[in-house]
Amino acid sequence: MATVISKQSAENLVGIADQFVLQGNVRSVTPFGSGNINDTFLVTLDSATEQHFVLQRINTQVFRQPRLIMQNMRIFSDHVYQRLQYTLLNRRWEVPRVMSTKDAQDYCIDAEGAFWRAISFIPGSQSFDTMPNIGYATEIGYALGMFHNLISDLPPEKLADTLAGFHITPLYLRHYQEVLANTSPQSSAEVNYCLQFVSDRTTSAHILENAKTQGLLPLRLMHGDPKINNVMFDTATQKAVSVIDLDTVKPGLVHYDIGDCLRSGCNPAGEETEQWDTVYFDTDLCQGILQGYLSAAKAFLTENDYAYMYDGIRLIAFELGLRFFSDYLAGNVYFKVKHPEHNLARAIVQFKLTESIESQESQIRNIIQDVK
Ligand code: GN1
Ligand code: MG
């Protein structure tokens, strides 16, 4: 459900935000962004030095050990700050900073036991839910490549697993089958389409996990959620300047990230549309994103990484559709929804996108060959 703030809780919000303020006063706290899991607010201060920061209530039903997230974020940012000191970059690049409370903690717990943390807001930046124009595509790709590049020498085992099973498609498939066994969804054209869609694709769900088990794809650190609106753009230069939302930075495959970046960046209709006929995968945007990605990531990619890139793109679109559909069947317990059919509608968008990816397989494989 959308966050509803009563007068009472608005006052509480100011009190919670104030825990993270070392200089100045809180002027306002307003709902921010379009996250599906955590509750996010923009805090505005009357301070001259730092005008805004981002306050978040972590959904502890999803992230069971939120302290591990904060620990990962510290290790991640210490490493990246150090790398940036020794990297000659001729452009702006920022890393979101964890803010401390008045008593020097990474988080605070409110009277109801909720877990709150604060992250710096990248000044003069904005994000987009869909690609404003093709010029942004290479920038989105560059941002993900830069992100991967900066952690490519941080050993994966240094970071904890903050969300077990995240992006392991066969586990989502198993969960779906369990949910399905315990529900009898009301039959409709939309539900039947989704049921059939998944049942036609159960055998291809294992492709990345099999490649990982066979040692063809190495375990690396990943972002976990590099969708288009997690890339921040400088409002003046229109260049990508940061990748935000670091809760799922943890060991995984870069293919999950490449897939997530492309399934969100190359879907001009956006993941919230209900005009399902307008959903398609734009191969020009795909070419731009991959070109930008490789301009920063080429150094650490192997032949096998390229060989499985198409599969990653197809699989992550399918996987997200499967996750939305399972959540619809389970009664909307994971993703926030605005109405009961919301997750069903979101699933159809991802399945239509998967269909479009599948129908352009040879073009997408050619693009990968061309840009590498
Ligand atoms: C969730 O909460 P948000 O919007 O940052 C989800 C991602 C999905 C995304 C789809 C931890 O991210 O995996 O791709 O929704 N995050 C988690 O918009 O499940
Ligand atoms: Mg996220």
Please give a structural write-up.
The chain has 372 residues and is α+β, with helices and mostly antiparallel strands. 44% of the residues lie in helices and 12% in strands. It is built from 12 helices and 11 strands. Strands 1, 2, 3, 4, 5 and 6 form a 6-stranded antiparallel β-sheet that branches. It has a 3-stranded antiparallel β-sheet with strand order 7-9-10, with helices on one face. Helix 7 (254-265) packs across helix 10 (309-329) and helix 8 packs parallel to helix 12 (361-371). Magnesium ion binds at residues 225, 245, 247. 2-acetamido-2-deoxy-1-O-phosphono-alpha-D-glucopyranose is lined by residues 35-37, 62, 163, 225, 227, 245, 248, 271, 320.
Quick structural summary:
This protein has 372 residues and is α+β, with helices and mostly antiparallel strands. It has helices spanning 7-19, 66-85, 135-151, 169-181, 189-199, 207-213, 254-265, 283-297, 303-307, 309-329, 342-359, 361-371; strands spanning 26-31, 39-45, 52-58, 98-99, 108-109, 115-120, 125-126, 220-222, 231-234, 240-243, 250-252.
Secondary-structure blueprint:
Blueprint: H1 7-19, E1 26-31, E2 39-45, E3 52-58, H2 66-85, E4 98-99, E5 108-109, E6 115-120, E7 125-126, H3 135-151, H4 169-181, H5 189-199, H6 207-213, E8 220-222, E9 231-234, E10 240-243, E11 250-252, H7 254-265, H8 283-297, H9 303-307, H10 309-329, H11 342-359, H12 361-371
Antiparallel strand pairs: 1-2, 2-3, 3-6, 4-6, 5-6, 7-9, 8-11, 9-10
Helix pairs in contact: 3-7, 3-8, 4-10, 5-11, 7-10, 8-12, 10-11
